[in-house]
Write a structure and sequence with these properties.
Its EC number is 3.4.24.-. The protein is built from 12 helices and 18 strands. A 4-stranded antiparallel beta sheet has the order 5-4-6-7. Strands 10-9-13-14 form a 4-stranded antiparallel beta sheet.
Length: 456
């Protein structure tokens, strides 16, 4: 997917999420009797405007990366005595707090609805069936093996959450790793028999940034059959005579159960004098073929590993995951709460240096995810929108001046002290808030650039 398409789907996401946020402020303000001058989607030059019967001007502006609701008495301008009953600043504290909180709440409610819609629609998803884990990975140390089926996860061994798909498992594992917590897995064999509990020490990888190496070190690979799909031109696999559709049965007499085990054998095939030649037994069109392959010896993170340059057929055993109305709504609510709590805890860990700041993503990553999810279909795109909507809710509730959470902190001070915070203090805190937001944006954008450039 090219940059133009990614940018298009990013703008589609913004065009949905920003109006919902501003609509929350707008509707509660009107319900509280506040006069609204303008409801704007975007900033800058006005491209379209309409004057409503309520006297509110509705506008669409040239820079669609945000929006605002301009209300009477929201700023420092004087308010005429006859209009004070409609002015924001003269409303009771509880109404002002409700108006400010309504934007993040609208995003939160939208996230619940989107997650519930994903659950109601349902989708065909890969089961959490595992392949042979890389040697030395967390999964390998935990004793996981090819054909294990993860059915549930738990942080404390008491409360277990069902795992309906491979995506569920990956999300739970990455969440535990980001929070520096261990995770227990309830595992059966591929037929669903022989349940056992496995401890995955994800806390050992706390603070690591999310990248390909982290995934390898965790080692939860999907169960893939040892069937070749693509043989790279000029690769060691091509030189050995491997073809698309070949099923590798054994290497040097050792039976191969899945592609993960084949990859592990190939990677460890060398020694002090370089790669060794391997004997491959291959099934091709119903016939047994014997091949000799000498893997290429490549450097990977300072370690030499063998490679054949072949890619497996990416066919995973899948199941249709869907829920009824009540269960889907409950799942949407629980998913949104869990994701919000994880986000807040992760931000706290980054603040004290216990988690990598590389977890922050900026507009480039969001645009990339938007394009990929849209390309994958309706359900992945709705799930993406739900996650971004919830992220906007959490971000706006952070206690930083310039954000809704900062204003709520002002109101908390006012409620406890009986007097509003002074304009001087508001100005100073606003400057600090702008600086913090600019630093966060610069860091997120830097992470985006590094991620796309392959620097981490």
């Amino acid at each position: 997917m090219d940059l133009i398409q990614k940018a298009f789907w990013f703008l589609v996401a913004i065009a949905i999420l920003v109006p919902i946020h501003e609509w929350g402020h707008f509707r509660v303000a009107r319900a509280c009797g506040v006069k609204v001058f303008r409801f704007s989607i975007g900033f800058g030059r006005v491209l379209w405007r309409r004057l409503g019967r309520d006297g509110t001007e509705y506008t669409l502006c040239s820079l669609p990366l945000g929006g605002y609701v301009r209300m009477l008495g929201m700023g420092p301008e004087p308010v005429a005595p006859h209009e004070q009953a409609q002015a924001f600043r003269y409303k009771p504290l509880r109404q002002r707090a409700a108006i400010v909180a309504a934007g993040p709440v609208a995003n939160w409610v939208l996230a619940v609805a989107l997650f519930a819609a994903v659950a109601w629609i349902g989708s065909e998803q890969p089961k959490a069936l595992l392949g042979t884990p890389p040697a030395g990975s967390l999964a390998d140390s935990a004793g996981l093996r090819a054909g294990d089926w993860v059915r549930a996860v738990s942080g404390d061994g008491q409360q277990w959450d069902d795992v309906d798909s491979l995506a569920d498992l990956q999300s739970a594992v990455l969440r535990a790793q980001a929070l520096g917590e261990p995770l227990q897995l309830s595992v059966t064999d591929v037929q669903g028999h022989g349940s056992r509990s496995v401890a995955l020490d994800t806390n050992r990888l706390a603070g690591r940034s999310p990248d390909a190496q982290l995934s390898r070190d965790i080692g939860l690979l999907p169960l893939l059959q040892p069937v070749v799909d693509v043989v790279a031109a000029g690769s060691a696999g091509e030189a050995a005579g491997l073809r698309s559709g070949d099923r590798v049965l054994a290497v040097d007499g050792r039976a191969v159960s899945d592609f993960g085990l084949l990859r592990q054998i190939i990677r460890a095939s060398g020694g002090a004098n370089g790669p060794a030649t391997l004997s491959l037994r291959v099934e091709r069109a119903g016939q047994i073929v014997e091949l000799q392959a000498t893997p290429a010896w490549v450097d990977e993170g300072g370690q030499h590993v063998g490679q054949l340059g072949v890619r497996p057929v990416a066919t995973l055993e899948s199941t249709v995951v869907s829920y009824g109305f009540v269960d889907g709504l409950q799942r949407g609510a629980l998913q949104s709460w869990d994701l919000a709590a994880t986000t807040v805890r992760l931000l706290g860990r980054m603040l004290v240096g216990e988690a990598s700041v590389k977890n922050l993503s900026g507009p480039l990553s969001i645009a990339d995810y938007a394009g990929k999810s849209a390309q994958a279909g309706l359900v992945p795109f709705l799930d993406f929108l739900g996650k971004v909507s919830l992220s906007l809710a959490v971000l706006n509730l952070l206690p930083l001046p310039m954000l809704d959470g900062g204003h709520l902190m002002y109101y908390l001070f006012e409620g406890l002290s009986g007097r509003p915070i002074s304009e001087w203090w508001q100005l100073q805190l606003q400057r600090v808030g702008i600086l913090i937001l600019m630093l966060m944006m610069a860091l997120a954008l830097s992470n985006d650039v590094s991620r796309f450039a392959g620097w981490h």
